[in-house]
Amino acid sequence: MFLTIENYLFTAAMAVYLGGTALFFLFAVTKKERHARIAGVLITVGFVFHTLALVVRGIGAGRLPMANQYEFATSFAWGICLCFLVFYYRYRFYALGVFAAPILFLVIGYAAMQSREVRELMPALRSSWLGIHVSAAIIAYGAFGVSCAVSMVFLCRARLLKNKAWESYIPEEEALDRISYRAVSLGFLFLTFVMITGAIWAERAWGSYWSWDPKETWSLITWFIYAAYLHLRMNRGWRGKRAAVFAVVGFACVLFTYVGVNTLLPGLHSYA
Amino acid sequence: MRFAMVLLVILASACLAGSLIPQGETAAVYSGSYPKPAAGLILALGLDDVFHAWWFAVLAILLCLSLILCNLIRLPALIRRTKDGFSYRACASSAAEPILELGEKPSALFRSLGFFRVEAPEENVVYAARNRLGIWGAWLCHLGMLVLILGFGLGQLTQFDASVYGIPGQTKPIPGTDYAVTIEDFEILLRPDETVDQYTTTLTVSDGGVRTAGGITQVNHPCKLFGMKFYQNSTGWGADFTVEKDGSVLQQEFLCAGELAHVKPVEGLTVFLRAFYPDYAEDDSGMPMTKSSALSNPAYLYMLYYGEELLGMNVLTAGQVITVDDYTISFHDPQPYTLIQVKRDPFEGTAALGGGIILAALLLAFYCPPMEVWAVRDPDRGVWQVFIRSRKAEDRLHRDLLRAAERSEYNVSDH
User: Does B127 reside within a domain?
Assistant: First the structure.
């Protein structure tokens, strides 16, 4: 019964997200603020459905819904949505939705393609570290997703502003750069936490806190990329366009760490 | 800085290669999977074992040196700034402009923004600073990285790592030590749907019979005995392997799937237990398989060698035997064995400390930006001019201060 309810809630969340994404696109075409406002509300409503879907699945499975491809993908989408809503309502600029909503829909679409079967946890996953490690990953990936969306707004800003109607909906370059940096800072802090908690857990489960497993290695590569972003920004003044490109590349790495590594590079994290 | 960036790029590229190219395979695998020049390049550059290659270690050492140098260069300035940087005198000499004017002394306003220690360094001056430690964030992050890498590297060099497997009742030496492990019990806890809930091994460790200690190890719950950690690593099937002649047992030992046994009475004869099927069946193409993990129809896939010559390969089901001349070889009493990983890493705590320092340092660097506020009374106009200084959070401080002033009952004029 729980699975059926979760299925309805997940489908409702996806449908509402799709509606929100479509309205953000409509806003991009018409520049009518009303469309963006409704889109924001729809994404918020979708987030509520999505949260309920995760809660119901958690109750039905008797554990945190973070243990297989579907569960992590839907949690990942939830993390992106959470971070998007935090930044969207904090900074109130509609153009963010135009770029973030498709990312959100892409990830939840990927989740929808995975098997939704509820399986019992294998012994290695039966640990309180699962919740800590994966929750942090969800926030980290979500924050990087938002930084990517903000950076895409930055990179397209000049082109968009050829149409004067965009002026009230896109912040100044400096503000965009600052928002993207804040999202990267949050993501970087959580990514570091993910790697450290992952190492502690791996030591307990596999007897080695670092095994150069593809997932670990790609997390490290992503960490290097964002570390370089932060260093170049702080010490070399790499802001604006170059920093935006870095943030987009960083998120591409995040996506590969999740989707690419799981599907192309099997390792100890193959179940994730 | 530039050197560190180059190092990060090279390290990231090395990691990329290490994750995309299969690691630790034989030369034949690379020759078979890649074009000849690519395979040659992989082997010549050590890309077949990136993370244990000498040049990868050199890169890690260079990164450590870069971190040490970076921190040494920055240390004097940071100490100076910590000692003297946060003061009204330093602020007064800056070219800061007032951001607002207040009719009253703003000590309470500063406190409401978290500047709890408001000083009066001079008459008609109030000064407060917050998050002074924030300036150490990046420095501490580098220190944490250094400690982490050193902990990991030294751990790799000095750690002890061995594996012991067995069935209940067996005592096995821990390779490379004077200790021995006795497997007292091994239990596989199954759920109703037959999936595994937990593996539990009860074991006793003794050092040559002088001291003995016991413990229980499970997946995610290693036990620590004699300074070594015992991890429940894996499991598999094995069976008693018996060689008989004329009804008398000449040889009997426990053989795990994947293991070889020399048939001692016949020199040169070897049996390899290639696989074990607890619930034997054949798939559509006639290949052996197991229907479930339940021990309901055991079967053994064996290979028989004389020297290096393969004499035969077949599946033995219950009651079937191999006959070689007058000898009868059989497998019976299959049971799961437990594989225990034994490890001692004296630098594990160092690496953990490094990780902790990095996290604390990132919190400091991102969320505790140093901020200073001060106010000077203009005796002629009777107003307090408020100034702020913060490299990383000036906008936020400015905004928060204005909002707080507006909320309060101060007589405010915004600059």
Answer: yes
What CATH number corresponds to the domain at position B377? 3.30.310
Instruction: Flag whether B11 is in a domain.
Output: yes
The answer as to whether B399 is a domain residue is: yes
The whole-angstrom distance between A22's CA and the closest CA on chain B is: 35
| β-pair type (B179-190, B196-207) | antiparallel
| B91 lies in the same domain as B56 | no
Comparing CA positions, the residue from B265, B228, B243, B255 lying closest to residue B341 is: B228
Which tens digit of pLDDT belongs to each residue from B284-316? 888 999 988 888 999 999 999 998 899 989 999
pLDDT, tens digit (0-9, with 9 covering 90-100), for A38-90: 999 999 999 999 999 999 999 998 888 888 889 989 999 999 999 999 999 98
The dihedrals phi and psi of A21, each to the nearest 5 degrees, come to -65, -45
Mutate to test the interface with A, among B6, B10, B16, B19 (most CBs of A within 10 A): B19
Q: How confident is the model at residue B269 (pLDDT cuts 50, 70, 90)?
A: very high
Judgement on whether residues B243 and B282 belong to the same structural domain of the protein = yes
- The total of structural domains in chain B comes to 3
B20 lies within 8 A of chain A by CB: yes
Closest alpha carbon to B147 in B351, B358, B320, B10: B351
Any A CB within 8 A of B293 CB: no
Residues A235, A236, A240, A242: what is their CA dihedral angle, to the nearest 10 degrees?
-120
Tell whether A162 lies on the interface with B, counting CB pairs under 8 A: no
Domain match, B254 and B300 both: yes
* Residue that is last in its domain, among B310, B336, B362: B336
pTM of the model: 0.88
Neighbour tally for A11: CB within 10 Å: 13
Chain A interface includes B11 (CB < 8 A): yes
Domain enclosing residue B40, as ranges: 2-73
Say if B94 falls within a structural domain.
Answer: yes
